[in-house]
Q: What sequence folds into this?
């Protein structure tokens, strides 16, 4: 145990690793705060959900409508009446008339009321669009446009179609469950899903990977770099030490990942109030950031999606830990090892695109951890021609875990027999 | 002539050498002291790697740090541990260093071949050094120290990696070289010093304790070194009374070489003190301190 | 100098060179390749490109009032071509679309009409229908050029400069954003690759010898600590060689984009996306970005040198330079290379000043480091 603690000390006393960790935490915090200018607007949704719940069914719609009508009346009677005699049917009508001078004409309370009602109106109006929008969605059409976009044909195109057929079934299930009929932060305006799962989570993942590679290369080749290899590997523990080193890199990687995730996500949820919204299905219509809505393969609530994503981040951390270990063992020089890692990373991102567009080999390149981390905001969901497979994430992690395990064992055995 | 004039060196508050005064002329000097006594510090100052806090080091009257490259031009240095480029052959490595030493390319080529032959590496002169044994690397080190035919040759533990045969060879080489240059040898291997050193310098308590030829130094213990045989069960109590220099098992008894002010027993044999005896005696306090 | 040559050989050792090539290949395919193989990128970029090639051919570097009339004529011809095509199709006639004007005013919300539209534009991809909307736009631009040029200015200095451009008639230059933005994307990615390569090859320069205690032998030789200075020269020379080789390769690739006919066209065109403080032609702009990259490469040679001479191991050197590199590749390049000399980005002399400050600070830091090394105790 002492041995493990000593190895661990080597990691945590490295000023570079600690320094980078701190730098990353600061950077993430800045990123979150920079993007938080609209967080007060988001609170309007919390209020709505407090009042009516997030589930959009007939009862909820009625209550919402009632409330909304009341508010518009109040707008007309109490607020507008005093200044001019016009009557408005909606805030957008109101804004059309009052382009610039709202703060001058109305007092602070009134302005607040108007702005809040305006936001509420946006949520309200979207309710009527849901059915039309979802009935206009043709999953197979999307498949075809994806096929066209990437110039796929033959077997490759068929595989895409097959996956989207399965997705289609899920889509119908989703609509039947009314998963999409749930309130959530308006994606088109606030893009919260992209913010959290792409902007922030992707940055976190890359930071974790950088730390994992540095920690692993550092520890694995430590004795060689400090000229203590003759002494250390001839002790009783001897070459078995490499197993302890591997274990400690895994522990350190998980620790680093935890620290970054905790501080990053922690700050995020302090800044952005999600109360009342944790159980909203992730496939909610409102969540849509761009043209195509988020379609998860399973009925997941936001909190479930978040937790599964976090678990996936940890699994990815361990995968990269394994990759770094094997590379560091193979390439003794830590400097070159780092760049070899970067080159391999780059190769795994570019080579898949060179496969012929009609063969199934073009999909193989997508099932790598390198590809997996490109779009964390589309995990477990429809995500384009190359990654829309129901068990994409699981398959990638599973296959690579086995491969890395095998390679790792080979690497360790080679070390046991190697001349030092 | 190389003069160390009242030189002191400390690292922060920790003083390593104080008021060192030494004059070197042509010949072989053995620098003898336990580790940590300041040997390496002194050597690093002589080779311009460290700067003295006080005092000067003068070569032919001028401060060596002002002389700069003029001084280093006549300096040859073999460090205790030195690095090399694993993928270079000794020839390529020596070529690299000869450029740094300001040697003309063609003259250097010739010299390199000569030196490699001198140290017995002519058969592997184009092989990559990563395949060399420790002793072979050491020999490359000796060769590079002599590339520029230095007037001052400083060798820190030069025979450390060499086998007895190589050591003899080396000693002979040095003896010849020392005729017209200053050779400073820092070593623990007493036999190196015994055979070739003109003078021995001992450093203790941050200062120069002795600087004299071997005979005079050994005279310190004249008439005080004895040998006798002691039964095994009495060795321990014997050690408490007298300072033991070495012990050897012989005919079921322990033959002990030790120091005593006078001959207390007839069975004791008086022997001639060796430089090793003096070393152990001079530094015995420090040895005991460590224990 | 023999010593500097030896150091160059050490910098360009075989293992590093192999990795360097691999890094460049990967960077090329990740970032640069797209800008080369997909130029012009889709439509209407292709049509605009063709339009401007024709314009340059016929009108030269500028389109004056007379030539503009000709441009309008070309538009009319294109409209006629469109009319003819529409009239040749029965389905258009049935839908009540009889000429291009009707076509342009079609209601895309109407399913039937949208079908016809996408058939012509997306399925059959008839050139003239891609071209026409942009010919119209560009005619409008030309007719309102003073107004449009002045619109984005937000302070007096910018306004003055725009007026200067208008006085000289530079806004009628035959040059387009399609070409310009493609070049900027390209040069940004090329600069990224160059800086990364330089940092990679230079970082070991002091670290390696210090780690392996070769400096004991170097510093006690006749050359002594001057080796430190010689390494600075060797490093800068190595970077220069590397950057030049890379630029040659990158520009050979870029030449396949066929934009050389626009080299002498001024970039301050109404059809372009930049208004510059200076009357630069395209080739001058290219030269400016190349010089800028050389300067950045110089600075990013000194930085790894500094880090290399103080770090004890490679992990430290990498860990310290990683944030620096990331900062450089995102923010620095965006402000110092991308759309250089734009009046909306910085005041007139700011960019030049900033470059000088970079050179100054890095050089002074290196000089200070060198002075320190001359007097430093070599403890390890």
A:
């Amino acid at each position: 145990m002492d041995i493990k603690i000593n190895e661990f000390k080597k990691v945590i006393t490295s000023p570079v690793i600690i320094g980078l960790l701190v730098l990353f935490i600061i950077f993430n915090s800045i990123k979150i705060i920079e993007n938080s200018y609209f967080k007060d607007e988001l609170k309007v949704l919390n209020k709505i959900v407090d009042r009516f719940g997030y589930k959009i069914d007939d009862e909820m719609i009625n209550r919402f409508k009632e409330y909304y009508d009341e508010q518009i009346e109040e707008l007309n009677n109490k607020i507008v009446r005093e200044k001019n005699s016009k009557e408005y049917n909606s805030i957008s009508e109101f804004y059309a008339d009052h382009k610039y001078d709202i703060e001058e004409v109305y007092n602070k309370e009134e302005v607040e009321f108007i702005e809040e009602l305006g936001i509420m109106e946006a949520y309200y109006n979207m309710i009527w669009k849901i059915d039309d929008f979802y009935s206009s969605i043709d999953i197979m059409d999307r498949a075809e446009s994806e096929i066209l976009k990437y110039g796929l044909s033959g077997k490759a195109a068929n595989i895409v179609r097959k996956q989207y057929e399965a997705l289609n079934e899920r889509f119908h299930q989703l609509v039947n469950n009314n998963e999409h009929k749930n309130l959530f932060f308006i994606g088109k305006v606030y893009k919260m899903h992209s913010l959290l799962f792409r902007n922030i989570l992707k940055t976190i993942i890359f930071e974790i990977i950088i730390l994992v590679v540095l920690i692993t290369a550092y520890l694995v080749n430590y004795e060689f770099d400090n000229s203590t290899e003759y002494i250390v590997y001839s002790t009783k523990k001897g070459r078995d030490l490499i197993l302890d080193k591997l274990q400690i890199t895994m522990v350190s990687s998980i620790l680093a990942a935890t620290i970054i995730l905790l501080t990053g996500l922690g700050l995020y949820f302090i800044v952005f109030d999600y109360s009342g919204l944790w159980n909203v299905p992730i496939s909610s219509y409102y969540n849509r950031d761009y043209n195509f809505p988020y379609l998860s393969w399973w009925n997941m609530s936001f909190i479930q999606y978040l937790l599964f994503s976090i678990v996936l981040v940890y699994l990815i951390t361990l995968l990269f830990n394994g990759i770094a270990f094997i590379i560091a063992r193979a390439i003794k020089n830590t400097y070159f090892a780092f760049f070899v890692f970067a080159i391999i990373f780059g190769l795994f991102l570019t080579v898949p695109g060179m496969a012929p567009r009609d063969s199934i080999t073009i999909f193989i390149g997508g099932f790598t951890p390198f590809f997996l981390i490109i779009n964390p905001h589309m995990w477990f969901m429809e995500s384009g021609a190359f990654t829309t497979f129901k068990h994409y994430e699981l398959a990638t992690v599973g296959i690579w875990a086995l491969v890395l395990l095998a390679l790792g064992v080979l690497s360790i055995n080679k070390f046991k027999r190697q001349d030092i | 002539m190389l003069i160390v004039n009242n030189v002191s060196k400390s690292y922060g508050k920790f003083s390593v050498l104080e008021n060192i005064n030494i004059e070197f002329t042509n010949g072989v000097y053995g620098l003898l002291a336990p580790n940590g006594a300041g040997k390496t510090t002194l050597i690093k100052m002589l080779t311009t790697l460290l700067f003295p806090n006080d005092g000067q080091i003068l070569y032919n009257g001028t401060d060596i740090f002002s002389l700069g490259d003029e001084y280093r031009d006549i300096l040859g240095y073999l460090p205790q541990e030195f690095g090399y480029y694993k993928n270079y052959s000794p020839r390529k490595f020596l070529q690299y260093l000869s450029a740094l030493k300001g040697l003309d390319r063609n003259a250097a080529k010739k010299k390199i071949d000569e030196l490699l032959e001198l140290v017995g590496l002519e058969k592997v002169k184009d092989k990559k050094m990563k395949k060399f044994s420790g002793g072979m690397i050491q020999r490359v080190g000796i060769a590079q120290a002599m590339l520029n035919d230095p007037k001052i040759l400083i060798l820190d533990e030069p025979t450390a990696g060499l086998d007895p045969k190589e050591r003899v060879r080396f000693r002979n080489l040095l003896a010849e070289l020392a005729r017209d240059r200053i050779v400073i040898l820092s070593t623990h291997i007493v036999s190196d010093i015994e055979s070739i050193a003109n003078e021995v310098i001992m450093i203790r308590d941050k200062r120069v304790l002795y600087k004299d030829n071997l005979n005079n130094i050994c005279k310190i213990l004249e008439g005080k070194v004895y040998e006798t045989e002691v039964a095994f069960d009495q060795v321990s109590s014997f050690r408490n009374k007298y300072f033991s220099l070495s012990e050897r098992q012989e005919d079921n008894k322990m033959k002990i070489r030790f120091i005593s002010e006078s001959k207390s027993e007839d069975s004791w044999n008086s022997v001639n003190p060796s430089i090793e005896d003096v070393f152990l005696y001079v530094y015995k306090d420090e040895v005991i301190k460590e224990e | 100098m023999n010593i500097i040559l030896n150091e160059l050989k050490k910098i360009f050792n075989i293992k590093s060179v192999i990795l360097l090539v691999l890094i460049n290949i990967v960077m090329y395919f990740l970032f640069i390749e797209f800008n080369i193989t997909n130029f012009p990128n889709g439509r209407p970029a292709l049509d605009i490109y063709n339009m401007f090639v024709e314009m340059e051919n016929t009108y030269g570097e500028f389109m004056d009032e007379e030539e503009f009339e000709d441009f309008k004529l070309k538009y009319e011809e294109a409209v006629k071509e469109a009319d003819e095509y529409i009239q040749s199709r029965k389905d258009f006639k049935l839908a009540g679309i009889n000429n291009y004007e009707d076509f342009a005013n079609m209601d895309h919300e109407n399913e039937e009409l949208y079908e016809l539209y996408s058939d012509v534009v997306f399925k059959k991809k008839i050139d003239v229908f891609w071209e026409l909307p942009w010919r119209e736009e560009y005619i409008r631009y030309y007719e309102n050029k003073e107004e449009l040029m002045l619109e984005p200015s937000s302070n007096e200095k910018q306004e003055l400069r725009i007026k200067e451009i208008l006085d000289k008639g530079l806004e009628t230059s035959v040059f387009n954003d399609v070409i310009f933005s493609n070049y900027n994307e390209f040069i940004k990615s090329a600069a990224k690759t160059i800086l990364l390569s330089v940092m990679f090859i230079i970082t070991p320069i002091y670290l390696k010898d210090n780690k392996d205690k070769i400096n004991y032998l170097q510093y006690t030789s006749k050359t002594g600590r001057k080796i430190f200075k010689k390494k600075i020269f060797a490093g800068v020379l190595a970077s220069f060689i590397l950057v030049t080789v890379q630029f040659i390769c990158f520009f050979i690739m870029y030449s396949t984009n066929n934009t050389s006919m626009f080299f002498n066209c001024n970039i301050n065109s109404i059809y372009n996306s930049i208004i510059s403080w200076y009357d630069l032609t395209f080739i001058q702009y290219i030269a400016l970005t190349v010089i800028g990259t050389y300067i950045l490469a110089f600075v990013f040679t000194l930085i790894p040198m500094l880090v290399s001479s103080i770090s004890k191991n490679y992990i430290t050197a990498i860990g310290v330079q990683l944030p620096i590199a990331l900062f450089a590749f995102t923010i620095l390049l965006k402000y110092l290379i991308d759309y250089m000399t734009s009046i909306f980005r910085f005041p007139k002399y700011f960019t030049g000043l900033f470059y000088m400050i970079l050179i100054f600070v890095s050089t002074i830091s290196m000089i200070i480091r060198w002075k320190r090394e001359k007097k430093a105790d070599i403890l390890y």
Notes: Chain A touches chain C at residues 14-17, 19-20, 23, 210, 214, 217-218, 225, 333-336, 338-340, 342-343, 346-347, 349-350, 353 (CB under 8 Å). Residues 241-271 of chain A form the longest helix (31 residues). The CA atoms of residues 42 and 373 of chain A lie 28 Å apart. Chain A is about 70% helix and 0% strand.
